[in-house]
Amino acid sequence: MDEKKRACFTLDDQGVLWFKNRLVVPKDMELRKKLLDEAHTSMFTMHPGCNKMYQDLKQKFWWTRIKREIVKYVSECDVCQKRGHDSIWVIIDRFTKSAHFIPVKNWYNAQKCAEIYISRIVSLHGVPRTIKSDRGSLFVSRFWEQLQTAPGTTSIHSSTYHPQTSGQVERVNQILKDMLRACALTYSTKWDECLPLAEFAYNNSYQKSLEMAPFEALYGRRCRTPLNWSKPSEHVTFGPDLVTQAEEQGKFIHSNLKRA
Q1: Between the CA of residue 31 and those of 2, 24, 26, 114, 168, what are the distances in Å?
Q2: Which residues, 6+ apart, have CB-to-CB distance to 111 below 8 Å?
Q3: Which of 69, 91, 107, 113 could be stapled to 74 by a disulfide with Cβ–Cβ 3.0 to 4.6 Å?
Q4: Under 8 Å between Cβ of 175 and 202
């Protein structure tokens, strides 16, 4: 422990140890379990998620790796495991603006997020060159560590991350909220059941900055929908012409994004 942190500990006249203004909880697993139970399962708390539970406990108590123990506790709670998703992981490709909306639970740790990322993103698009995240550098660092040690991954070490809040993500979040609200009211379904339809609708909506929909920017063709139904016999581009067409479309998107 460094000197700066050690200076934050004080002993009062009753022999009680404090960390700043928080009571230091000794390494007594039974005592810590009682505190965790009270902060999570009592009728006054009603099974909060990891972040809320941590904020509640850290106001009064301190012990080493308290947040890690909270995450483990919530992940092993039978009631919370039976409960549905409570968060949405929004992942956006900055070039094509295509997005994935993944239902998650707020107690998911870096390892769980890495598993989801591999199954939902890497399996479709490969490994990204860079990543921007609003989760903070520590979480993202652990996230990349988990990706690097996942089975079959060998070349993720060259990827970089930039912790920051993206205005683009915030705009997409607002669009997603409006879509889910409309979907839930129209079809009387749970919000997480609406996510696949919301993702489809968003990716096939015209983007002014692209002058096309994200789906078209990603795949080089418009998505087949009831409003845009192409027959199998229509002309399809293959071979060198397909590569040329993709390069031209990439230049077109770059040009549009610079003007936007």
Answers
A1: 27, 12, 8, 33, 45
A2: 146
A3: 107
A4: yes
